[in-house]
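Question (not urgent): is this output format expected?
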Amino acid sequence: MSAFNNSEVQLFLLIGIPGLEHAHIWISIPICLMYLVAITGNSTILFIIKTEPSLHEPMYYLLALLAISDLGLSFSSLPTMLRIFLFNSMGISPNACFAQEFFIHGFTVMESSVLLVMSLDRFLAIHNPLRYSSLLTSSRVAKMGLILAIRSILLVLPFPFTLRRLKYCQKNLLSHSYCLHQDTMKLACSDNKINVIYGFFVALCTMLDLALIFLSYMLILKTVLSIASLAERLRALNTCVSHICAVLIFYVPIITLAAMHRFAKHKSPLVVILVADIFLLLPPLMNPIVYCVKTRQIREKVLGNLLNICRR
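Got this back:
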């Protein structure tokens, strides 16, 4: 018997793309490029916000928090994804798996929370523009960031401990290229009712964030429709486009993946793996691109820095 919780399982096996194992080395090329773009894009946004005094405003601090969440998601999944697709190494120890799922779920909750606060920021900017700067100060954003980080840690902290108390007897094949709580607990041969209940509670907290974001946009829409000028309405709505894209990019894959895990009885493994990879790869990849394209201040600073580098 193994020393790990009196269990016979000493390694969990992650999975690449079923049926395409022979092509993993080629699949690793676009995956590595996506990670490179995601890490470079989010690091660039953080660097520009830190070094440019004109961007030291609440809205950009929230964008920095979003970039930190995206970097956390990228670095959390990077080790196992590269091991699988570059070196065909599928094994991961239980403790390493539990640690990975803690960071993945933690940064997922943090990103969800940041998107909620950003929706509040957009509501205040549109509903009460004259008091916006006094209501949402830099110090308040800093406190919000600290609270969001603590909330994320506290919500997912029980995950590794509740998984560790379970027994894993024979099944050890996971259904993703990285560890997730809902995936790992299904391998247990002991009672996982606590994991199911608490996992559902954390999912509800994330869905509550989405519901409050939806409520914020209902209030924003109500405010915008009360504006007499059509041009002013469009300008107000245009300030929300980047955030709406970020919300869709983040929540559509995560809701799809959760629904497939909970309700799909005859789901295709290939579809599950693709959706799961999109869930982790797409937000860190697309958020910097969306905000660089739609936010003039960020776009100008990025292009300015690129021109300075080219001149050298």
